[in-house]
Amino acid sequence: MIRTMGMTQVRRRFGRALLRLVGCALTLGTVTPATAQTDKMTAIAIPAQSAAIVLGTGPLPNAAAPESWHSQYGSVFARNVVVATLTPFLPDPARANGTAVVVAPGGGFQTLSMENEGWDVARALAARGVAAFVLKYRLNQTPADLATFARPRAGPPMPRPTPEAMMANLAPQIADARAAFALIRTRAGEWHVDPARIGMVGFSAGAMLTMATTVNGQDARPAFIGNIYGPLSAMTVPADAPPMFVALAADDPLFGNAGYGLIDSWRAAKRPVEFHLFEQGGHGFGMYPKATTSTGWFEAFARWMDMHGWLRRPR
User: Fold this and answer.
1) For residues 175 and 43, what is the distance between their CA atoms, to the nearest angstrom?
2) Cα separation of 29 and 77, whole Å?
3) Signal peptide location in the record (predicted)?
4) What angle do CA 172, 137, 52 make, to 5 degrees?
């Protein structure tokens, strides 16, 4: 029953945490790394992605603006993604431990932080013997012209949509995540992956997609999940909810003061959860090198995975 619930039920499972979605401001508002980079958006050519595998979820309905890419803060972002892809980052077969992770970058469902919250995370996982797969999921359409997209919005601030409002429009993204899990399981032998050891980690909007996939992904069924600076509103926890790792900075302007009901929900359901609340880090720190302890979130995540045995080959 849990796996086949409607989107209305999914929306009810997420609380009233506030979410500001203005282009990539969601991901980039406070992420300037220690070596300061310009916040100016600069158009770049779509990178060659020879390893990217097109998922079979089709083009985004009624999409008019073509996919485009830009750089900002010394990192790379995708926009107007209309066809979902999955890019494997595979470890040396001699080091492969059988675990896989689907990596879902954030960006307010308007951009994707492909480098800071995608490729860099996947490389770090592969270095630990984990097969990592960066999910470039379909996005809400934005102006095709980058200058128009980057221009500050005039007038009073727009109301902040809630996670429930966002959940109402995540059907394409959930379909992309399900297709990613299906593809990995289909090619598990080729990629040295144990089909029962596929997890998912998401950042900001990608964390929302991770949670939505967990409760409404039907056949996806992540073995474990990582929620990295996503909303932490209380929810009804599925009886078979996977172990969850959570990382958030206390000074996160979006979710730092919105409560930690999700942690309480997981604990009340007696499901495994580890929560790291960093004093500083802002929103969107990802793999950026910063002079804050939030930079250590990945090492903590890796230790958590190792504690559960996911960094060791099963006997």
Assistant:
1) 29
2) 14
3) 1-36
4) 135
Q: Which residue type is seen at 160? A: R
> Is residue 128 pLDDT above 80, yes or no?
yes
Tokens for 309? 């045995």
- pTM score, two decimals? 0.89
Helix (H) or strand (E) holding 302: helix 297-307
The residues spanned by each domain of the chain are: 2-32+52-152+169-307
Strand partners, 111: 79
Beta bridge partners of 44: 69
Q: Average pLDDT, whole number, for the chain?
A: 87
At residue 267, φ and ψ (nearest 5 deg) are -70, -40
CA–CA separation, 120 vs 125, rounded Å? Answer: 9
Q: Which two tokens stand for residue 58?
A: 């089709």
Helix residue spans in 76-204 (DSSP H) = 120-126, 146-150, 163-167, 171-186, 188-191
302 CB-near residues (< 8 Å, 6+ apart): 124, 128, 311
- CATH architecture group of domain 2-32+52-152+169-307: 3-Layer(aba) Sandwich (3.40)
**The token pair that represents 215 in the structure block:** 């409760």
pLDDT at position 305 over 90: yes
**Which residue do the tokens 């996160």 mark?**
252
Residues 250, 15: contact at Cβ < 8 Å? no
| 78-113 residue pLDDT tens | 999 999 999 999 999 999 999 999 999 999 999 999
Strands 75-79 and 111-112: antiparallel
The pLDDT, as a whole number, for residue 9 is 44
Q: Which residues contact 183 (CB under 8 A, 6 or more apart)?
A: 53, 55, 86
Q: Is the pLDDT of residue 37 over 70?
A: no
- Residues contacting residue 179 through CB under 8 Å, at least 6 positions apart: 55, 56, 57, 84, 86
pLDDT in tens, 242-268: 999 999 999 999 999 999 999 999 999
